[in-house]
Write a structure and sequence with these properties.
The chain is α/β, with parallel strands linked by helices and 642 residues long. It has helices at 39-54, 77-86, 103-114, 125-133, 139-147, 160-168, 197-201, 225-228, 238-250, 269-281, 303-309, 324-329, 337-349, 367-380, 398-406, 431-445, 448-461, 465-482, 509-542, 567-570, 573-594, and strands at 12-18, 30-33, 63-69, 91-95, 120-123, 150-153, 175-177, 207-210, 213-214, 234-235, 255-258, 288-293, 312-320, 353-360, 385-390, 491-494. Strands 3-1-4-5-6-7 form a six-stranded parallel β-sheet, sandwiched between helices. The longest helix is centred in the C-terminal third of the chain and has 34 residues, at 509-542.
Amino acid sequence: MTERTRTTGRRFQFILIKPSHYDKDGYVVQWLRSTMPSNSLAAVYSLARDAANRGVLGPDLPIDVIAIDETNTRVKFDELIRRIEDNGGEGLVGVVGVQSNEFPRATDIARRFLGAGIQVMIGGFHVSGCLAMLPELPDDIKEAQKLGVSIFAGEAEEHMDTVIRDAAARKLQPIYNHMTEELPCIADVPAPPFLPRDFVDRTVGNVTSFDAGRGCPFQCSFCTIINVQGRKSRFRTPDSVEKILRDNYAQGVNRFFITDDNFARNKDWEAIYDRIIKLREVDGLDVRFMIQVDTLCHKIPNFIEKSKRAGVTRVFLGLENINPANLLAAKKRQNKITEYRKMLLEWKRVGIMTFAGYILGFPNDTPESIKQDLEIIKQELPLDMLEFFILTPLPGSEDHQVLSAKGIWMDPDMNKYELEHVVTAHEKMSKEEWQGAYQSAWKIFYTPDHLETVLRRAYASGVNIRSLMPVLFWFKNAVPVEGLHPLQWGIFRIKHRKDRRSGLSIENPVTFYAKYAAEVARKATLLGKSWWELKRIVKKIEADPLAKDYMDQALTAVEEEDSEHMGLYNQNEAARVAVERELRVANKTSVQANGASNGRANGAAKSNGNGQPKLTLKSKKTFTAPDAANQGEAPGENAPAA
C-alpha cells in the first residue's frame, strides 16, 4: 500500500485494488509472496499518481493514491472505509485489471464498499472484452451495475482525469465505454507503468513488469488481447522504456517481465532493444528480462541475437499445440510445426531458457492424443518448461462470442475461467476426461526422467542449471501440490477465515485452522521431497564428466534430423499434409528469393531453402507413443484422473 504524505484538511482518497480470485473452497487466493506485480495495477497507479501530482481536483482537494495487490496483501475493508469517512466521504475505489476469473471477487469487494456509501468502479479485461464482443452486457456485469458499480471499459491513458473529477463531484457514470474509440497512443505517456519497491518485495524474485507495446496482428480465436488491445501495434518509445528501467533501477529493481502479448511483433522492437543494449553495455545497468513471442520470431533478422544482448534470459512461446488441424481450427495459422525445432534450437544456441504454453481441448484432442503429443514433445522439442491450459472461451474472445451467439452452454461461474477448469462441452471428451487430461499433462511432462533430460539438455547448451532448477521445481509442483497453475502460485499460502466468497458460510475456527495446519504440513513434505530429488539430479549431472557432450533427438541440428521417423511430422494425416504444404511454400519462397531451384547439387541433400532437409514422409505412418514403463514413469501415472 502506498500513499502521499497526509496533511490537514480533507483529501480525496483514490484506492486502487487488483483483486485475486477464489479457490475451490471459496477462500481468496493469497500468498506471503506472489508471482509478480500486476502491470495493470502499475499502469493505473502511475496515471493516478500523475493526476494527483498535477492537482486535477484543484488546490483545495489534494489526492492520496493507495494501491493494493490482493494476491499478496489483505484488503482491510474497515480501515479503508474509515479512511474515506474521515475525509468526508471523498473517495473512489477502483478495482483494476479485473480478468474474468477475478470478476466474482471484484464484485464482492465492491459490495463491502458500496454498503458503506463509497463509490466503486470496476475495469479490466472482463468488462472490456464483453463490451467489445457481445451485443449486450452479460448478467454478472448487469448485477454489478444494479449494486451501484460504475463500469470502465478500455484503456485509462486519456481518461483518468475525467474519472477522478466525476467521482469527486459524485457524478460517476454507470458505464464508461471507450471500446468504440481509437485506442490511445502510448508512445510518450508522461507516467508509464511503475510500482514502488515495496510491491516488488512482496513478490517472488526482484521482478516487476511493464508493457513496451500493445496489440497483436494475429487472429487466434481463443485470444482476448486482439479484441481488447487491438491488432495494430502501439508501442512506447525507447525514451519511455528507458525511463521505466531507470526509475526501477534507482529503487533497486532490475529484473523485468515485458508483458507485451507478442514482443516480436512490436514494430519498434529493435529500437527498444538498441536502447536497452546501450543501457547494459555502455551505461552499466544490469537489467534482465523475460519476454513473450510467437513461434516465428527466429525468422526476424537479429531478433534472437539482440534479445541475448538486451539481457533476455527467459522467453515464453505460444506453442499452443503440435497438431496442425487444431492450430488451424484456432486460427493459429502462424504456427508452423516444421519451424518448432529450429526456433527452439536458436534460443538454445544463445543460452536463453524457453517456456511454452500448451492448450488442451482443441477439437481433435482426446486423452490418448494429448498423451501422444506430449511424448513427441518430450522426445523431439528442446523445451525447458511447458505449461498447460484448458481451452477456455474467455469473454472477449471470438470463441466466447461464437458460443454465446449459438446459445451453447458455458459455465456461468466466472471464477472458473482461469484456464484450469472445463467450462463448456467438448465433442470428443467428457468433462471428466478433459479435466483429467489437464491434470495428467503435468505428470506426463514433469516426470523424474524427463526433468533429468531437460537439465542435461540445458547443461549441454550452456544454460545455468542451478538457475533452471528452481523454475522446474515451480512448474512441476504447482498443480499437484497446490492445485493451482504455476502462474497463480506463490510462496506460502495465506488464508483468512472470514475472507470467503459471498454466499458461503464462515467456518468454525477449530475446523478451519486444523485443516489449514494439515494443508501446510502436507505441502511442506511434498515440496521438500521434490526439491531434494531435483537437487540430486543436478549434482549427478554436474559430476558427470561427459555431461557437456550430451546429445539426443531434440538437440540434433535440424539439417541432420531423421525427418522420416519424427513423430512431430508423422503423428497423423493432418501433420503430414501440413508439413508438405509448409515445405512447398518454403521451397517456392526460396526459389523466388534465389532465382534458382533447390534441387540436388553435387549429391547434396534436397533443401527447403530454410536450412532444413526436404522431408520424405512415409504414407499413412502414425506415431506411436513409447510405453510408459520404458520412460521411468510409475504405472498408471499418465491415466486421466477422475
